[in-house]
Amino acid sequence: xxxxxxxxxxxxxxxxxxxxxxxxxxxxxxxxxxxxxxxxxxxxxxxxxxxxxxxxxxxxxxxxxxxxxxxxxxxxxxxxxxxxxxxxxxxxxxxxxxxxxxxxxxxxxxxxxxxxxxxxxxxxxxxxxxxxxxxxxxxxxxxxxxxxxxxxxxxxxxxxxxxxxxxxxxxxxxxxxxxxxxxxxxxxxxxxxxxxxxxxxxxxxxxxxxxxxxxxxxxxxxxxxxxxxxxxxxxxxxxxxxxxxxxxxxxxxxxxxxxxxxxxxxxxxxxxxxxxxxxxxxxxxxxxxxxxxxxxxxxxxxxxxxxxxxxxxxxxxxxxxxxxxxxxxxxxxxxxxxxxxxxxxxxxxxxxxxxxxxxxxxxxxxxxxxxxxxx
Length: 375
What we know:
CATH superfamily: Aldolase class I
CATH architecture: Alpha-Beta Barrel
Number of domains: 1
Distance between the termini: 12 Å
Number of helices: 12
Helix content: 25-40%
Strand content: 5-15%
Order of helices and strands: EEEHEHEEEHEHHHEHEHEHEHHH
Radius of gyration: 19 Å
Shape: globular
Structural class: alpha/beta
């Protein structure tokens, strides 16, 4: 890659390569690939051979865990982007089977992230309008690198039937993930998508059982997790992604550590196996001072925690593990830069800086291939 530079310092990397057990799942090391939207499926939401190569390279590059990009869960309002893959029907499920086999053959565990875009949907061929907790237009503008343009549409506040439909979609998609051979699912409760919209004050203005205090705003998330667990049984891995910032509001913060504690205590009561936190810089305090978001999640939930956020510097990653702020780290930009990041780190090889052109003008695999070929 042009402009390569060494980042980070030399550190004892052994902790990164310790095995980890989450629920009944044994993982070979503590390095995972974070979910990254790549808008490279077919228009019908089917995973492709090119996607198989993309995910397979991470497994072959030494990552112990690979988590898919967000997969839409139903044919109603869940789809967020054109060419987003899904688990909304059996044909989509079957398209994932060879990818799962490829990743598992490469030595990694494979988890499907389940996502409902809600009011942030900017490409859903099934619907001409969007749904959210309330009729509040999302902040920001649609993301051009995911084929969006202009303001987000004003969503329609969800009815109780539509809430139940969304929850059922998470459960049905989780069953399809299990049938496709995945090791587990991760419920996307972060980054401003539907479940996070319900949690967010100002976005959620409901006056029914799904609005008001923290417990009420978390209710849809909790019901989705319980429905998924009931659908897949006790042995299948179920995780949950959590964040403060959003794709349309990067600087959003909860009110403070007290609210964060309440959120993670409630999530810790759920029948889930882990929490996956994401911040721009995972090691920094979640608020003005104090603990990181990962550490808050670990302290208050009592669950294993995966931490994501600018951890491509091995020293930063090790810091979170050694400090018991997280049990595993996941990489986005670092994995895109080096699909063999774990192997490189184990050999003390040079690591290059992330090339922003990989995500511009589109965050697709075709664009990444063009950059790699020097186009």
